[in-house]
């Protein structure tokens, strides 16, 4: 009996200490993170993938024969990377990084996005409602020689319904980037990057 | 019963073999159980009910801004957070606040993804109180339809890529139905979103699936055109003096997603869920065509609940047993407290009737020819017999992709302050 009372007392003291000290998990905490060391919190496309993919694509374009054979820095228009995913991936961020890095390198010049929108508006097109033919025509009018397009494909697999305590999710991503010659319509350069990631999470939580 | 009570009384004064003295009954256990019961009652009461009901009433009265205001502050982590976000998303879509609406709906889907499949604390509490203490996640059809409405936001903003992302989520949900009903409306919407990004192969698959699922309609997998399969009066196109001659010459095509009616709780008359109403679409005086019913949310709700019936019955039975055991345990220590506990526990017995109430009852699609440069059109909402119920002129949203014009509307009361 005394032992039980002791246990109860200990429990009360422990709870009181916990409450007074303030458990760290209940406190707000803010700290700066190193963008190169950000942890991957789930299996889906994240900031680290954005950084890595853009760096890889820029490095490949810079080293490609397509670019080394050019006498002047070619003018390019970006028509975006299509997110063929189930998550709302911001592929605009990816093309923005590619554009910024290549512009800074001086190897490629890009048509200003605002100018492109303006011209489309003048011609009675919304950027999004334009068809492929319109986009090529607008690109040419803006003096671009090449067009950068691409697609980010996502495939997802999860463990099926069965008696289990955790769920495994496998994500596969494939990024394709194409540079098309607007004069000839021929793909001048193309590359693909892929990666897969697995996440396992409990089905039972508090 | 009397024998049982005698037995209980005999066992109450426990005798310590060592000390040889009578110990008093331990009052702490019943008090603890009572505290647990009160906590469960508190949990089940929640805090979202009033503002949500106000918002819904304002929404259906056309006071959309008030409805939006009613749900301005949704407490993060609330057990009904997903439901409230769904309701607010719908209100904001009706207000034309597409970005804000999308933010709400995407947050709702993200919360749902983050939640553990089985929460120990909530499920345990649900066995003491009722299923209202569980975090609301919506029935599978609601989760799929959420993506359908989210897609419409992106269509209104000409964001075809994000609309296609919604389409993939819809297909993902419907590929593994697990006994839940198919949703032809969502299938059609998904197919259309894929058609807009030139993914015609996958679009055709979904058009075919929608056609198979919506038994009264035939959908052409290549063009997405809709024709009635049956020849009954309800499905036959409405007779119009202008439709055949005028509309056929138009080069454009209007695809309009139409919502008619309210969830049954808000229905005033039976027509709304008896026979499928429809919408006739006009450009000026020219009849462009009509809408066809694809899905009925009340039917989807009933079919989904039927699918979960066996599970729910066994859970309800278990809960009754748990409540009886708790009341008995408390009553064995203190009869009056036991009776109070039983009263509270069984007063808490209440079915979980939470649902996304701002959804339209009928989900319909019209795919009709229209003139190039379409800036507005008129919709007449009619009963299945052709009686005009309401008429409204739509100027927004109308977006365009090539020759296809995309729009959506609903037979809501005209917005007023």
What is the gist of this entry?
The complex is a heterodimer of chains A (206) and B (417). Chain A contains 6 helices and 6 strands.
Number of helices of chain B: 16
Distance between the termini of chain A: 32 Å
Our count of domains of chain A comes out at 1
CATH class of chain A: Alpha Beta
Count of domain modules of chain B: 1
Mean pLDDT of chain B: 83
Multimeric state: heterodimer
> How many separate helices of chain A?
6
Strand content of chain B: 15-25%
**Which CATH-level-2 architecture of chain B?**
Alpha Horseshoe
Which CATH architecture of chain A would you pick?
Answer: 3-Layer(aba) Sandwich
Number of strands of chain A: 6
What spatial order of strands do you see in the largest sheet of chain A?
A: 2-1-3-4-5
Number of strands of chain B: 12
Largest sheet of chain A: 5 strands, mixed
Layout of strands and helices, then pairs:
The complex is a heterodimer of chains A (206) and B (417).
Chain A: H1 2-21, H2 47-63, H3 65-68, E1 75-84, H4 91-105, E2 109-110, H5 113-122, H6 132-141, E3 146-158, E4 166-181, E5 187-202, E6 204-205
Parallel strand pairs in A: 1-2, 1-3
Antiparallel strand pairs in A: 3-4, 4-5
Helix pairs in contact in A: 2-4
Chain B: H1 2-11, H2 28-45, H3 49-60, H4 64-70, H5 81-94, H6 98-114, E1 118-119, H7 120-128, H8 140-156, H9 160-175, H10 184-196, H11 200-213, E2 217-219, E3 226-228, H12 243-247, E4 252-260, H13 271-274, E5 278-283, E6 286-290, E7 292-296, H14 297-307, H15 309-333, H16 335-347, E8 362-370, E9 377-382, E10 388-394, E11 398-401, E12 404-410
Parallel strand pairs in B: 4-12
Antiparallel strand pairs in B: 2-3, 4-8, 5-6, 5-9, 7-8, 9-10, 11-12
What does this structure look like?
The complex is a heterodimer of chains A (206) and B (417). By secondary structure, chain A is of the alpha/beta class. Helix content of chain A is 37%, strand content 29%. In chain A, strands 2-1-3-4-5 form a five-stranded mixed sheet. In chain A, strand 4 and strand 5 form a beta hairpin. In chain A, helix 2 packs parallel to helix 4 (91-105). The longest helix of chain A has 20 residues, at 2-21. In chain B, helix 2 packs antiparallel against helix 15, helix 5 packs antiparallel against helix 6 and helix 9 packs antiparallel against helix 10 (184-196). Helices cover 49% and strands 16% of the residues of chain B. Chain B has one domain: Alpha Horseshoe (Serine Threonine Protein Phosphatase 5, Tetratricopeptide repeat). In chain B, strand 9 and strand 10 (388-394) form a beta hairpin. Chains A and B meet through strand 1 and strand 6 of A and strand 1, helix 9 and strand 11 of B. Strand 6 (204-205) of chain A pairs parallel with strand 1 of chain B, so a sheet runs across the interface.
